[in-house]
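This part of the workshop introduces the protein records we will be handling. To make this concrete, we reproduce a full record directly below:
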Amino acid sequence: MFSLILERYEGAGEAHVVVSEGVTRILDKAFAGHDEIQSIQLPDTLLSIGESAFSGCTALKETRIPESVFEVGARAFLGCAALERVTLPHDLFEVGNATFTLCTSLREVEGGDYVHTVGIGAFRSCSALVALPLMEHVNIIGRDALAGCSSIQELTLAEAVISIGREAFKCCHRLQQVKLPVYVEELGDDLFAACGSLERIEGLTSRLAEDFPNAFPARFLEPPS
């Protein structure tokens, strides 16, 4: 029987898990390493999910994070290699560091309309991900945030973005087009390293090219012949 705070899951081999209504917090590593779990139903009473809470749940295919949740800890779904679809709360403020790193089957992320920050490596190596609509709303994008998302072909970043970390889109091999915000204040180096298919960077102004020359592939900085 679950308490209001779920410290550690003690199930034995169940593929489908239902967390009882009334649970408000799932603590760090509560489900970590339970590679038998294929689905988890979370209660509408849940408020926070701890760090690495579901990391290494390699058979987990889909989960809906309830609208009540305001905090998802770093590495919460790290290495959930079978995870194909996740729904985020609309009012979630941050997708933390490495939250979905190495979720190599993740194809669809819904919700998260008011996410402010996408942390370091938040979606790193999500190689099946083809689109990430929440990027149209964020303000801060951390280092390596989408590095290795090799199926994404287009990205539109929010006009409200003020900072993009180093190598944020590295190895997005199929990325062809990016729309940058006009008033971004900080760009890390090598944003598009190893993005060999990149054809267009909309919004690459002379100011950005002069202020952050190491952020862009050299071919985009060369004057037209």
Q: What stands out?
A: The radius of gyration is 19 Å.
